[in-house]
Amino acid sequence: MPEFLLLALAAGLGVALATGPLGCFAVWRRMAYFGDTMAHSALLGITVGLLLDINLNLAVAFGCLAIALLLVALQRSRQLASDTLLGILSHSTLALGLVTISVVGPARINLTGYLFGDILATTYTDLIAIWLVGALVIATLIWLWRPLLAITVHEDLAHVEGVNVTLVRTALMLLMALVIAIAMKVVGVLLITALLIIPAAAARRVAHTPEQMAVIASLIGALAVLAGLSASYFWDWPAGPAIVLGATSVFILSLLKSSKL
């Protein structure tokens, strides 16, 4: 197996490990639109990286975290509904990022790679960053698992039981922002939310407990990475979209299985 394919496989598995359990919370809390907003804000991070001449991956990560914190602050003001805020931030950051990139550096960046993923160009530095962030996300989710489940079931009841709802919700948003920043290398800005939502949605059809759903979602994500990279290697499909189609195929199979039960 070529070295570039091994690096791509290791990177995809690292992302799948993190997106599995985090995607479960995105499904349970109906945060798919939040994922889209974070993904679109990644382009704004690329713009900042180009302007300041800093590492684009770091710029994307800080950009996603900044937008997540801004969203938390705007939600606390309660001046607009959450879906309205998400819509405004999502499309504004996407438009601002695309316009600025076209003005300051269209020749300095492979925009298609960021939009649809460039997993086959993964370097050892990318791989280390993906696995470090993935390990951090998994460790934090394990630590906050019960509070996260509590606020997912009923936020007011969790508050009465002593859970710091605002802190836990903010932590979840920041974790999702981090995962989206690293997943952009695998499936790109336009498909990140699919990698978060589809494996978790498929796992929901067959799991019996939240823990089972998190593990199964990671396994489905890993299977999608294997299928997508295989399709890319043997049939020359674009890797990022092929990975998402792999996850979609598993979701369709889960629908068929549950319909027969």
From TrEMBL:
Chain ranges passing through the membrane: 42-73, 85-107, 127-145, 189-207, 214-233, 239-256
What's the short name of a Pfam family annotated to this entry? ABC-3
The principal location of this protein is membrane
Q: Which Gene3D superfamilies match?
A: ABC transporter involved in vitamin B12 uptake, BtuC
Q: Where in the cell is it found?
A: Cell membrane
Q: What SUPFAM superfamilies would the database entry show?
A: ABC transporter involved in vitamin B12 uptake, BtuC
The keyword Transmembrane is assigned to this record = yes
Transmembrane helix among keywords: yes
Q: According to its record, how does it sit in the membrane?
A: Multi-pass membrane protein
Keyword annotations from UniProtKB, A to Z = Cell membrane, Ion transport, Membrane, Transmembrane, Transmembrane helix, Transport, Zinc, Zinc transport
Functional description taken from the UniProt entry: Involved in the high-affinity zinc uptake transport system.
Family of the protein in this entry: Belongs to the ABC-3 integral membrane protein family.
Q: What is this protein's name? A: High-affinity zinc uptake system membrane protein ZnuB
Q: Species name for this entry?
A: Gilvimarinus gilvus
